[in-house]
Amino acid sequence: MVEFIEKVDWVIVIIGCLTLGLAPFTPEPHIVEKLRMLFQGNLVRPIDWFDFVFHGIPWFFLIAKVILRFR
């Protein structure tokens, strides 16, 4: 998995975060809404978990690449 993350280009990860990771842009990004729901304990429906994972994948890759870069 580490090798795969290292092979993914930075540009692809950043574009993924800015598009899929923040979509839809209005009224607020899904990832922000789902994080708020998670911290409030309201993330209970399966569709909400799916949205959280789906919109969180680009952010996971970005965080993982940063950690691997400075490791």
Explain what you see.
The protein is an all-alpha fold and 71 residues long. It has one domain. It contains four helices and no strands. Helix 2 (10-18) runs antiparallel to helix 4 (46-69) and helix 3 packs across helix 4 (46-69). The protein starts with a helix and ends with a helix. The mean pLDDT is 92.
Distance between the termini: 16 Å
Mean pLDDT: 92
Computed CA radius of gyration, to the nearest angstrom:
13 Å
Determine the strand fraction and express it as a percent band.
under 5%
List SSEs in N-to-C order.
HHHH
**Helical percentage:** over 70%
- Number of DSSP helices? 4
By oligomeric state, this entry counts as: single chain
Pick out the low-confidence regions.
Answer: none
Overall geometry: globular
Count structural domains.
1
What's the total number of strands? 0
Give me the secondary-structure category.
Answer: mainly alpha
Task: Describe the main β-sheet briefly.
Answer: none
